[in-house]
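Can't paste images in this forum, so I'm doing it all in text. The chain is below; anyone willing to post the predicted structure tokens underneath?
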Amino acid sequence: MDCASLRSPPRAFNSIPGARDMRNRPSPMRRSLRRMAALLLGIFGTLAALSSLTACMGTIHRPEVERATAARLADTGGSLPEAHPPQGLGFTVLQTARSNGAQEAMIVSSGNWFKHRRPAQAAVLVRHPRGLFLFDTGLGRHVDEQFAVNTWLDRQFFGYGEVNPAADQLSKAGWQPERIQMIVPSHMHWDHVSGLADFPQATVWVTREEREHAEHGHAPGFLHSQFDGVQHWHELQFTQGPYMGFARSLDMFGDGAVVFVPLSGHTAGQVGMFLTLPSGKRYFFTGDVTWTIEGLRDKADRSWLLRQILHIDQDEAANQACIVQIHQIMQRFPQLTVVPAHDENVLQGLPHFPSFQE
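Text version of the structure:
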């Protein structure tokens, strides 16, 4: 007798009523696992499709801007502008807070739906022999009271944490806030000028267009409690000629070390700052043209979905033109370090107070 002869006839089991159904029917746990797997596959598939769709919708195609920028950059002769930065010039970053964050694909259309980002709010302290100034202030000592005027929904969208005001960081290191002579906000949105009140003696440099935009603006972008008490204003004017493809510029100290250029679009009078150090290193601080370096690298706007939910840019077309222009500058001059104001990854690679890059 072999093993085969010990097997029951094929019909013996099937002859039991319902046996065939019992043999093929999965257990309740297995059915639940299958449903869960199908649901997860559906979610991941939807997110992948949404990521591809939003990337396509966010990629900027502005051939007329590309041609104009290429022509202006050609006038530079392929080299960076001459500069004579003095010894002692340096800069450092004071990170003042971090946002509660969002998925990267919401922050930049070419981003990843599976990656969570927590953009930073920061101030940049520039030390020049002719004066100390801040480019932006980040979040200040009174940000909680300032921010409280927002609606519940806006407080969720723009929530923040880990607050460490620039004035407190300076004081702890033995720096008197009075040493800060000037503040140049990239623009007047709440997360860039919250600390103005912490430096009441400083002169605030803004373009006329930006100040008017702020004074006629409202929450959540502009919070009047942050700037209504400013005692010393200076109108920033682009009185000099072309620079790095921009039609106008302002050389702050006349040595080519700190040069401001117009970046209107996100707000009416946003400015960017080129900084050249004695070491020869060059930086371009671009404010909120994009919130991440990926937006400039990929010519990608903020996500289409976010732009439908929130009114982010004062002039979306003008801001997209800035994205294209900076993208081309990055391609032409890869040695230039470009710094979007909120990119936590780029900021992490820069010197943090009290260390300075010279």
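The first strand starts at residue 90 and ends at 99. The chain has two domains: 3-53, 62-348.
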